[in-house]
Amino acid sequence: MAPDAQPQKLIIASNRLPLSVKRKDGTYEAIPSSGGLVTALKGLKYSDYLWLGWPGVDIDERDRGSVDKALAKENAAAVYLDENLAQSHYNGFSNGVLWPTLHYQSEVLFDNETWEAYQRVNKIFADRISEEAADGDLIWVHDYHLLLLPGLLRERLHAQNKRCPIGYFLHTPFPADDFWKGLPFQKQLLEGVLGSDLVGFHTDEYKANFASACGTHLGAEVEGGKIHYNGRIISIDKYVVGIEYQRFANTIDHPEVQARIQELETQHKGKTIIIGVDRMDYTKGLPEKLEGFRVFLEQHPEWREKVVLIQIAIPSREDVKKYQDLEGEVSKLVGQITGKYATPIWTPLLYIHRSVSFAELTALYSVSDVCLLTSRRDGMNLVASEYVACQEARNGVLVLSEFTGAATFMQQGSLLFNPSNANGLSDALYDALTMEKGDRKKMHEELRSFVTTNTSSKWTETFVGELKKLQK
Ligand code: ADQ
């Protein structure tokens, strides 16, 4: 930073803004949206920040002034993208190629057109952010949609003589080098990320995989938490993402939520509730969850009419064929299980395929004795933490896939299993449902201590704090 420049704002960049823009009475308004990244950044307390991202819809040139105004009130600004370009970048390369690769799924849909779109969008973000950034600003780039952005930004900022530390955080896993190397253009993508000064991951495993890929494919030198590349030193580390614990605790205390909890308890009297909350995504292992639950009902007839699985599946990426197929598969399995095991007085599972309000979500977490999360792979999984935050009274059991980042930190307090093994899942469920009160309490305390310590505020403060230290 130049001697007379002051540390200024924090610029956050993510593909989507944490807001959706909606037209109302001839003008635009910005409405908060939900999702893992939004939850992770809930604790941000930086006073002067600006969040840049795509508003999610194509906005006519004439309307942009009105959208800009609505977003400015929320510390946000739009990176406008033409609809086709945005789709090709988002559904094409980001979700068709990167998302599966980062989650160890080998079925990728690669073509040159989507790769072109991916590069173009990253360039548009780089142009927009470099215009917006003043010397000394901090820049924090998020997630797999913007892997090239740090490198592109570095070039532009250098040309403009602005010295802004660039941080990058990946919200997904980073796979083992041998898997990653199958990805076309993987070297360019690694180089893009290494344009950052600081790179963050959920776990040590992802960090080590990334460092190994940089060593093998770029010839970078890796030394502890530093990568030496092209005469620069890039810091890499694990930063444990969390939730705003207190926000959940406060919501539960709200009279309306308490009333809803009582209503749900009355409705399900005499039944033990198992809760599942996931985006409708193949990485979340919904078919595996349903198959495990089916095996459980088959192996433990004594639990029929005594247990109910409430599965909330938030609609996600609905215009992509693979996601439509998944929805079809899940609906079919739900129908098969219900058809086979339901009785005139009981249905084994309630399947809710839509978003629910925050109050409803906390009430559902609160009344459930078990939370079942079966991800095939998951960067972290914040639902696990949210469930714990709502279990002060009940000390419910967390049954967690060993392939979540969360399992790395929460293994002491939860029952881990491999979601591909339906029998193992059924056994874990049985152990959870029959666990002694004392053991439940002990496990809950382990989890509670993790969730209250590793909050979203702590994550944002730690990452931004490290970034600040890199201001030159
Ligand atoms: P996601 O894949 O979105 O995030 P996750 O961490 O589980 O996954 O977060 C989902 C969020 O959506 C939670 O905060 C949850 O409350 C919210 N949500 C869930 N169901 C909802 C519903 N029905 N209505 C409204 N909101 C709902 C990505 C990565 C994860 C990583 C996060 C954060 O895939 O591995 O943990 O980013 O880094």
TrEMBL record:
Q: Could you tell me which SUPFAM superfamilies the record lists for this protein? A: UDP-Glycosyltransferase/glycogen phosphorylase
Domain of life of the native organism: Eukaryota
Q: Which CDD domains match?
A: GT20_TPS
Which cellular component, as a GO term, is one annotated location?
Answer: alpha,alpha-trehalose-phosphate synthase complex (UDP-forming)
Q: Which UniProt keywords apply?
A: Glycosyltransferase, Transferase
Q: Which GO terms describe its biological process?
A: cellular response to heat; trehalose biosynthetic process
PANTHER family named in the record: SYNTHASE SUBUNIT OF TREHALOSE-6-PHOSPHATE SYNTHASE_PHOSPHATASE COMPLEX (EUROFUNG), TREHALOSE-6-PHOSPHATE SYNTHASE
Its protein name is: Uncharacterized protein
Q: Which organism does this sequence originate in? A: Penicillium flavigenum
Q: What is the lineage of its organism?
A: Eukaryota, Fungi, Dikarya, Ascomycota, Pezizomycotina
